[in-house]
Amino acid sequence: MIRSLYSGIGGMDNFQNKLDVIGNNIANVNTYGFKKERATFNDLVSQQMQGATGATDDRGGTNPQQVGLGGGLSSVDTIATQGSSQGTGRDLDMAISGDGYFIVNDGDEEYFTRAGNFYLDEEGTLVNADGMTVQGYGPDVDPEGAEEDFGELQVPAGETADAIGLDDGGDATLDSYSISQTGEINGVFSDGEVRSLGQIAMANFNNPEGLNKQGDNLLQPSANSGDPQYGIAGTEGRGEIQGSMLEMSNVDLAEEFAEMIVGQRGFQANTRMITTSDEILQELVNLGR
């Protein structure tokens, strides 16, 4: 069988993978914190028809004669660039401006996410859309001395300072709260004082593009992402938190449509290569008649 037939088959498979990646990007164009992907290709081994020769006193050198055997899928990269921020006017919506990830826990495992649409449950615990608890440092914990000593955060409206566990404030009740750029949750109490209720924890990685996507806007470390480096926003390379904002997907629809056309035409060209190879094989079979 001629080599071009198999090269065409491999090319069709490659461009199908490219279109799959593009389809996933377009499907998540409005997914908060989503990071787009791209497919890259590489050429396969080439068959050596004739080796190179060096120059002599009587004759110049010649280049090798090689015939390529098609291409293959080299990688599917995650492009971890910043998405645009959208104002929501909602106090519990947060966007990270820069590097870093929020930390959430389902009770068994720890996950990381860029989606900052958070909520309060009936007990005043800060959770994500799936009920996973957002991790942070309590008001009595210094993040600089205990980076991994974090847990769930409580914002119990109407509770007294004593019930919340604050050292001062007594019977003053929590009326409202705000979240700073460093993730500190500041509660305004009925006595007019502002007291810290805790601080949102964040993590960053040496290679964020190496994280494994788990679905539901969640990520987990892989063998090539590096270990999470815990701390708070605005320190050690971690970005700041923008309140009442959400980070949108970094998918560019115009770019995806252009790449979709490239993928479609590439797929069609490879099918044409298979058709042409088939016609040549048919002519060879007809020679025997």
**Poorly predicted segments:** none
Gross morphology is elongated
Q: Level of helix content?
A: 10-25%
Overall average residue pLDDT: 91
Which series of helices and strands comes N to C? Answer: HEEEEEEEEEEEEHEEEEEEEEEH
Q: Number of folding domains?
A: 2
Strand content: 25-35%
Please describe the biggest sheet, giving its number of strands, its sense, and whether it closes into a barrel: 9 strands, antiparallel
Per DSSP, the total helix count is 3
The CA-CA distance between the termini, in Å, is 19 Å
Rounded radius of gyration (Å): 28 Å
What structural category arises from helix and sheet content?
alpha+beta
Q: State the total count of DSSP E strands.
A: 21
Molecular structure report:
This protein folds into 2 domains: 3-48 and 64-80 and 251-286, no CATH class; 85-247, no CATH class. The strands form 7 sheets. Strands 7, 8, 11, 12, 13, 14, 15, 16 and 19 form a 9-stranded antiparallel β-sheet that branches. Strands 1-4 form a two-stranded antiparallel ribbon. By secondary structure, it is an alpha+beta fold. The two termini are 19 Å apart. α1 (3-27) packs antiparallel against α3. It has helices spanning 3-27, 161-164, 253-286; strands at residues 37-43, 46-50, 65-68, 71-78, 85-87, 94-97, 101-105, 110-113, 119-120, 126-127, 133-137, 151-152, 174-179, 184-189, 194-200, 202-204, 212-215, 218-220, 229-231, 240-243, 245-247.
